[in-house]
Input
Amino acid sequence: MDFDFTEEQLAVAEVAASIFEGMAGTERVAEVEAGEDRFDTALWSELAKANLLGLAVPEEHGGSGLGLTEVCLVLEQQGRAVAPVPLWATLVLGALPLARFGTPHQQARWLPEVAAGDAVLSAALNEVAASARNHPTVRAERDGEGWRFHGTAFAVPQAHVAAGVLVPAAVEGERDAGVIVALVDPAAPEANLQRATTTDHQVHPHLHMDGLPVGAADVVAGPEQGAAAVAWMLDRARTGLCAIQLGVTEEAVRRAAAYLNQRHQFGRPLSSFQGTMLRAADAYIDTEAIRVTTWQAAWRIDEQLPATEAVAVAHWWASEAGQRVVHATQHLHGGLGADVSYPIHRYFLWGKQIELMLQGPSAELARLGALVATRLRASAADRGSRPRGASVAGDRAGVEGP
Output
């Protein structure tokens, strides 16, 4: 596999890095964190001016028509700056599903506004991610040509600044009940947002719905394709989280290395002690594992190859190894790492938050095991149905690579 990025992708990463370095310094991030919305609108506007918010928006709607890899390159730079903007929520949770499953009217209504930086979107995926079969806890009941939603979607990313939230709901009271995904208005009278602050100091409110009306025009994926749409959304949401975690761990390791080189003890830089060298080396290796698995998952998705197992592997590394990295890099700063006025603590908080989003490492490992077991059972059944002596070369050729 060729892990080199194209010139266009490198240009995207360079522009994103320049904007975040120039506008998301430590003091600015702290200032935004102290605000009510915890949303850097000035940075958001600059990202829109650079056409970075429309990377995966189709060209006919004012975007660049690129893929998940390009979006992840921007998310990686956001992670390096731990910048408080709803990039993951808007681009990955909202715009990508609308571009794939939305009606022409929905796309024309929302995607140009996303690309221009005029609309923030989000999605409620925590409950379906926690379910073995991606089953929502929000319920949908028929109401004429439309629906009414009941229940609570917990910790919806940046829902307090979102104009629309994609909510999966389980259809109830019908013979062929399934799952639908609809775009709801979090400011509707039948909706109530309960403020919730996450570990990384961002706002992810709980969305309570009590008979929230959803018109037929607001349904993004109906019962016949809702379950597949949710699985599609989860693969991309988890990959986007991996990209943010990659940026977080990259920068945490860089900052730890710089600190160890300039801090002296017993007349020697801390970086010359074996204990600190080994701890930093382990953090670097974990970061590289996050890197290779993240780009493997993003590449398979963009190439329309089977990617669910690759996403599960990447998400496990981002969760399990990511928390090891941020713990180690904060520890390597000694007492300074516990000072909340010093920036390294923010990388620890972001890494811990990402660790448990859309399933923690233990749950992800169990999901990966179930995926592998299912594939092995299917392969065994296929071999059992072959005439004796038939070649298994096709099986070997079809096994997904690392």
About this structure: The chain has three domains: 7-119, 126-224, 228-379.
